[in-house]
Amino acid sequence: MITIKPSILDPEAVAIKKALNQLNVATVAQVKRGQHFELTLAADSLTEAETIARQLCDQLLVNPTMETYVLEVKEMAVNS
User: Fold this and answer.
1) Are residues 50 and 71 in contact, defined by beta-carbon separation less than 8 angstroms?
2) 24 or 79: whose pLDDT is higher?
3) What GO MF terms are annotated (predicted)?
4) N or C: which end of the chain has fewer CB within 10 A?
């Protein structure tokens, strides 16, 4: 999941929070908007898959000036 850093203003998230308040949903204290990517990698181990995924995030998918990310790597069953 890629999200905007807390120090960066996210006008879309602000607009969503305002709309929720207008719908009388006053219990929402904060809205964070993000991007979600699912990648299927052919790797020999979870460690290798995580290394590849981090490189992809760092080099292409994430703008480190404005965004941060959380990475989750799972092993998938191989269909024979």
Assistant:
1) yes
2) 24
3) ATP binding; phosphoribosylformylglycinamidine synthase activity
4) C
Q: What pLDDT score was predicted for residue 77? A: 79
User: What domains lie within the chain, and their CATH numbers?
Assistant: 2-69 (3.30.1280.10)
Report which of 8, 13, 78, 12 is spatially closest to residue 43, judged by C-alpha positions.
78
Q: Tell me the whole-structure pTM to 2 decimals.
A: 0.78
| Nearest Cα residue to 72 out of 48, 41, 38, 44 | 38
40 close to 46: Cβ distance less than 8 angstroms: no
> Which residues, other chains included, contact 57 with Cβ-Cβ below 8 Å and sequence gap of 6+?
2, 69, 71
* Eight-class DSSP state of 78: P
Strand partners, 4: 67
Residues in the chain: 80
Q: Which residues make Cβ contacts (< 8 Å) with residue 54, sequence separation at least 6? A: 71
